[in-house]
Write a structure and sequence with these properties.
By secondary structure, the chain is an alpha/beta fold. It contains 10 helices and 13 strands. α2 links the parallel β4 and β5. α1 packs across α5 and α2 packs parallel to α3. The structure holds nicotinamide-adenine-dinucleotide.
Amino acid sequence: MSGAKPIAVVTGGAGFIGSHMVDLLLANGYRVRILDNLQGGHLSNLAHLQNEPDVHFEQGDIRDLAAESLLFRDVQHVYHFAGIGDIVPSMEQPIDYMATNVQGTVRVLEAARSGGRHTLQRFVYAASSSCYGLAATPTLEDFPIQPQYPYALSKNLGEQVVLHWRQVYDMPVNSLRIFNAYGPRVRTTGAYGAVFGVFFRQKLAGKPYTVVGDGTQTRDFIYVTDVARAFYMVACSDREGEIYNVGANNPQSVLRLVELLGGEVIFVPKRPGEPDCTWAETAKINREIGWYPQVDFPTGVRTMLQDIARWNDAPLWDPESIAKATESWFKYLGKER
Ligand SMILES: NC(=O)c1ccc[n+]([C@@H]2O[C@H](COP(=O)([O-])OP(=O)(O)OC[C@H]3O[C@@H](n4cnc5c(N)ncnc54)[C@H](O)[C@@H]3O)[C@@H](O)[C@H]2O)c1
């Protein structure tokens, strides 16, 4: 490894967004240390970096991370992506979500505080737009926090922890609330969830797309390299202690995605607690950081389709298996309040 390069730690760097973050940091001359337990991520996401001397991969769990971990020694930037991202299973495994997304974040902060005590310039947390719950749109950073399910709560508690470490320990932190990230290497875990994984596998199998609700609901999809660039630009900026939305400010309907993919549809019941529209107001990050997305939705979907074979091994969902996977969701969130 070359001596003078700045050091970045990327937790969850074998995952979807984290692996793109690693690529961007290398392109900007960083030595990158990755911590990932491969629970949701895959080494294949880093295969193209096999002979890259500036990458160090450590398989490990943030829940066991020691404050004195050498991985964080003399670190300049920490990008904290490690976490459990599947939304639906959080209903049945709240303990795991809290342990990883909240207590795990405490451990990463402590390791960064110790290892980076003379060097740390920025700690950037991957928060989630799910904290806004059923919000008015377009949604601003100071809108009410109203998590609807344990995943959303755990990510928001993680954000509060990060900001608390700034208040108490003067850690230089930022929190970025990601809307719906999509792009190459998007998660293909066994859990039912993100629309891209579900639809791509169905397309490969020639099966109808299982559209939730009537498909007119919209999501503010944001391409993954734009997300990574937002994290990097925020880390390099002089803005600190800030929360920023990261979305395209351009919601797309699920039916629009179907139109781009082509094929038949079949409808499954809408899940309670899920918003009809997510829409990031991004004026703050535009103005303060100068960040704007660069990849539009049709281009992003087209790029992903080039890699569709990757979904050959992903689970193939149909209305029956989806009903089973979301049973607890309807049981707990579908009741009258
Ligand atoms: N993808 C999105 O649209 C989105 C939206 C909002 C927030 N986020 C957040 O961004 C982060 C990255 O999301 P992603 O979509 O790339 O998911 P991902 O599952 O691909 O990446 C998460 C990575 O964290 C690793 N990980 C999980 N538990 C760990 C543990 N205990 N110790 C070490 N590593 C662990 C996984 O193996 C995986 O590589 C997550 O924290 C997620 O909550 C993502």
